[in-house]
Design a protein that fits this description.
This protein is an alpha+beta fold. The protein is built from 15 helices and nine strands. Strands 2-1-3-4-5-6 form a six-stranded antiparallel sheet, with helices on one face. The radius of gyration is 42 Å and the shape is elongated.
Length: 476
């Protein structure tokens, strides 16, 4: 059990599900784990899945234990890319240990040192491929065949470049299509934005302005009444006859004199003195307010006009007055973007063409590398199928479309995708003398299982962005 880069030598499981303790030792080559349904094969595969970084749950721990432990020893091939690619020191063996705690605080150890779950997941994807018993159904989807070819050819990095180049090209193409579709409307939008930005800039609106204007308008509308109230109140408190402040002063003097005889009146005299002082301060404030409040018809008219402007802009732009400055900022940003990019179709066409050419350059390189991998895959598959009792079988990788014509040519049948311009399909013949036909149409369930096992054997150890990988069957 293992991949092209590693071989599983020992597996120890403690307190996991129904397992108290088990130790498995794997010999070189193919190892088969059999047993009746319910014997525990799937539980062992679940434990191995945890070593690959799968999520752990406390319900996996044996009922009478506080934690479960899964430990595996891998013998590494001479190639040390597996460890070095994960930032680990080179070694001939790799010991992985995972502890699942009922408290939820699990631990991961790699070669005796603490490690993170993400590192375990990174290692696990290279150490073990877990292949479910129904995964051969993927072979019935021809669109998945290119994934296996690329995985065998170790084309992951080139595939990533292809996806990035395709994405950049589509972005430029969409931009060009938008400009072409908009046509005159783009110029109209630019003109409209310039007008709206100018209008809002001229308005010079600031947050809180509307509320302040509304309050000032109320003061102007009731200025005479407010001034009269202030003057009358000031007169009653201080300047009139009799004034409250004068009365308070006389009472304060009397209480202070009484307090010299009866000490308990001292506090009352002090409070009355404070009240007299506060009344004088209120009277002074009212006098100043009366002097400040004046009915100004011109100012009231200005306020009404300003509020009308704010009301019109609110209705026009569909937002509150306080939000108009933010709306202006968005319009300015859009305007700046249109003015920077412009509506120059020539420029947009040039960018789209350059990115398309680059995408096709990567696609042709990817296609060339796939062609190189095809012969090797067919040869290796023939050998693997022979070991699985299918010595006369023929396995072919067919390219139904070649990535050699860019989209846009009059006679181009190719449509570039994130995986390139190739359409790859596996063909198969189980018997000598029969022409290979599309695998998805003629292979039986047993043949599909053996073909998938052969593919998994050849692609083991290669990192894969899609689909799972190799492991246990059930029931026998």
């Amino acid at each position: 059990m293992g991949s092209g880069a590693a071989m599983l030598r020992e597996l120890r499981i403690n307190n996991f599900a129904i397992i108290d303790e088990v130790q498995l030792t794997c010999a070189p080559g193919m190892n088969v784990l059999t047993g009746e349904t319910g014997a525990g094969k799937s539980i062992i595969m679940r434990a191995i899945g945890l070593l690959c970084g799968e999520r752990a749950a406390s319900d996996l721990i044996r009922t009478d234990a506080d934690d479960a432990t899964i430990e595996a020893l891998f013998e590494l091939a001479a190639d040390q890319e597996l460890l070095e690619g994960c930032g680990l020191e080179a070694a001939d063996e790799l010991l992985v240990r995972r502890v699942v705690s009922r408290s939820g605080k699990g631990r991961v150890y790699v070669n005796g040192g603490l490690a993170t779950a993400s590192l375990l997941s990174q290692l696990g994807s290279r150490l073990i491929h877990i292949y479910g018993q129904h995964e051969q159904a993927l072979l019935l989807k021809p669109e998945s065949h290119v994934e296996y070819l690329d995985e065998f050819g170790k084309l992951g990095a080139l595939r990533a470049r292809m996806a990035a180049a395709h994405g950049e090209w589509r972005e430029a193409a969409d931009r060009l299509a938008t400009l072409r579709a908009s046509g005159e409307s783009a110029s109209q939008r630019l003109e409209l934005l310039r007008f709206q930005v100018g209008e809002l800039r001229d308005a010079g609106i600031v947050p809180g302005e509307e509320q302040e204007l509304q309050q000032e308008r109320e003061r102007q509308r009731h200025a005479e009444k407010l001034r009269a109230i202030c003057l009358q109140s000031e007169e009653a408190l201080y300047s009139g006859e009799p004034a409250i402040s004068g009365t308070l002063s006389r009472l304060t003097n009397q209480l202070q004199e009484a307090a010299r005889i009866e000490a308990s009146l001292t506090e009352s005299a002090a409070l009355l003195e404070q009240a007299a002082t506060q009344v004088e301060e209120v009277a002074l404030t009212l006098r100043r307010a009366a002097d400040r409040i004046r009915h100004d018809p011109a100012r009231l008219e200005e306020i009404e006009e300003r509020l009308m402007l704010l009301g019109r802009l609110k209705r026009k732009y569909g937002c509150a007055a306080d939000a108009l400055p933010d709306h202006l900022a968005r319009l300015e940003s859009e305007l700046a973007g249109l003015e920077d990019v412009g509506v120059d179709l020539t420029s947009a066409q040039r960018v789209a063409s350059e990115r398309e050419a680059h995408a096709w350059e990567v696609a042709r390189e990817l296609s060339r590398r796939r062609q190189q991998a095809t012969g090797k895959l067919q040869e290796r598959m023939a050998a693997e199928l022979a070991t699985l009792g299918m010595g006369g079988a023929v396995f072919q990788v067919c390219f139904t479309v070649r990535a050699d014509d860019p989209v846009g040519a009059d006679d181009a049948p190719v449509r570039l995708t994130p995986v390139g311009g190739d359409v790859v399909e596996f063909h198969f013949s189980a018997n000598p003398g029969e022409d290979p036909k599309p695998l998805a149409r003629i292979a039986s369930g047993g043949e599909l299982s053996r073909i998938m096992l052969a593919l998994k054997t050849l692609t083991a150890g290669a990192p894969r962005a899609t689909a799972p990988a190799a492991g246990a069957g059930g029931g026998q």
